[in-house]
Specification:
Two copies of one chain form a homodimer. Chain A is an alpha/beta fold and about 325 residues long. The first copy, chain A, has twelve helices and 14 strands. The first copy, chain A, is globular. Chains A, B: GO terms for molecular function: kinase activity.
């Protein structure tokens, strides 16, 4: 096994976020699932966009946000995801490359257009996401560069992309390629509704020992294990997943690895402005620490610092120099 | 003459801003005119975008920003500008309508795409703009709804759009329509380089008495009059333009109307984050006061409050409730 060329390669949704502030009344009026992520079709996407205020466009996607954080921390990263050959696709490709991430998935011709996520941000900082998957759902297994997958220390997968069939097949294939190359597979469950739809698949992957690093939040842990008690949920998974990481919003995060359990408090911040990307950036910090061989507690701490930065402003990609911030806070 | 249906109708560039922070070194390396606006062709736009970091897209355009501010202050507004039938065009149309502005210019089929302005924001808050005019330069005189122009109390024109031929003809025609309907014509010189190119046209319009309200900053005033001294420059124009408004960045602004001169200091703010849109929002505040029949000093004050809000954050459209802010500050 040669040394990996990349610290991480991620497969995820290639999405442009369309964000606008709104009042709680609009969430009710539009019958949105506040705080959650809902898949929407063309018609519903149009209806929601029409009801949305003046918006800001910024490249997003859960795994892509995680990679952007890792790249900012100095990790070598590559991304695999499907955009269409259109303006939003150009924007996504520009932005991910601009932060130093290799991205070579060929854009897809014709309809549907590049994916977008309509994000309504309420005054409490919660984001309600409505994703039109567009081209993103057509990432074909054939688009996988198996040499690329084998050349990264960690393969990182987002649960959101388990919904559409083609990317799911691509991710299954990527897991095999990574494991055969002796690499680690990291997986984020993304959201409890995703587990509602695909829990059996996820549980099977875990039982088969195919997930080396698993990221869940407390709701996802409960949905995945069927166990409402947080610690009981962790107990059910800790012997099946070599590195288990569970985040708990304001209550911080827990990781269990090889029988060792570590905890970290949430980073104190002045004001939660927008929670978009908190989990993505926590994963970025944790994984960066992990790929550098840091101890469990330090990995958690880097995750918490990155998550704290991202929720203190609008948008899911960092505004500060994350590397300097982490260096300063770790001391 | 019937009462106007709109307070203002503006003709301007229909542009999406593509903004990214950058260091001064990059400005030098790319040989950009720091603080200025440069028109760029497709090739140069691509080169600059490739060199640009991760960006945020937000609808812009000078006159459109002014209207967005006026709409936020409660004015009835309509916009005329040319987008292409593409994703950026959809974004522009959505955003301007989302703030309550009527916008009915039909999108243009085929190439070129919707205009974009690549904005590099340096740590001192200055913005260096590079505009790819795209579809915006093809606003045809035929697209003018003359009834619309005649139905607004004020016709507001941006100097930036004087560069391309078709919109220039459209604006000349609009001036005639507005004047014949007994409406006022307001004009912003936009930038001194624009005056370098079209000063003779602008001076002729002024001499012919076709401009009722003129917005200039001190550089533009000097370029337009050939007079380096600020007060001497004002003296040259004050009898030719019924309402003359001159802004001076941190030094505040001056207005002269019917022999009366009023001044206002710049609004004190904690930190200049990004000066994009300062002039646009000053015009928004001043014009809103003017259309309401406020005194000259109050008009200047509303302008200063709006400009102060916009430079305290990234982006050229307001993040706060401008109406409440102005009400609070005016007392």
């Amino acid at each position: 096994m040669t040394d990996p060329r990349y610290d991480v390669v991620a497969i995820g949704n290639a999405i442009v976020d369309v964000m606008a502030p709104c009042e709680d009344e609009l969430i009710e009026e539009l019958e949105l699932a506040k705080g959650g992520m809902t898949l929407v079709d063309t018609e519903r996407a149009k209806e929601l966009y029409d009801a949305m205020g003046r918006a800001t466009e910024i490249s997003g996607g859960s795994a892509a946000n995680t990679l952007a954080g890792m790249a900012a921390l100095g990790a070598q990263c590559a991304f695999v995801g499907q955009v269409a050959k259109d303006q939003l696709g150009d924007i996504f490709a520009h932005d991910i490359r601009a932060v130093g991430i290799d991205f070579d998935t060929a854009p897809r011709e014709g309809d549907p257009p590049t994916a977008r996520c309509l994000i309504f941000v309420t005054p409490d900082g919660e984001r309600t996401m409505n994703t039109f998957l567009g081209a993103s759902q057509f990432l074909p297994p054939a688009a996988l560069d198996e040499e690329l997958i084998a050349s990264a220390g960690v393969l990182y997968l987002e649960g959101y992309l388990w919904d559409p069939e083609e990317p799911r097949s691509a991710m299954r294939r990527a897991i095999e390629v990574a494991r055969n190359a002796g690499r680690k597979v990291a997986f984020t469950a993304s959201e409890s509704f995703v587990i509602d739809r695909h829990g059996d698949d996820f549980r099977a992957l875990i039982e088969e020992g195919k997930i080396d690093i698993l990221f869940v939040n407390e709701h996802e842990l409960a949905t995945l294990t069927g166990e409402q008690d947080f610690d009981a949920g962790l107990d059910m998974l800790k012997d099946k997943v070599p590195t288990l990481v569970a985040t708990r919003s304001a209550k911080g995060a827990v990781a269990i690895q090889g029988g060792t359990r570590a905890e970290v408090a949430a980073e104190p911040i002045d004001k939660v402005v927008d929670t978009t990307g908190a989990g993505d950036l926590f994963a970025a910090g944790f994984l960066t620490g992990h790929t550098r061989g840091e101890g469990l507690e330090t990995c958690l701490r880097i995750g918490a610092i990155c998550a704290g930065e991202i929720i203190s402003h609008i948008g899911a990609r960092s505004e500060k120099d994350l590397k300097a911030l982490v260096a300063e806070k770790l001391g």
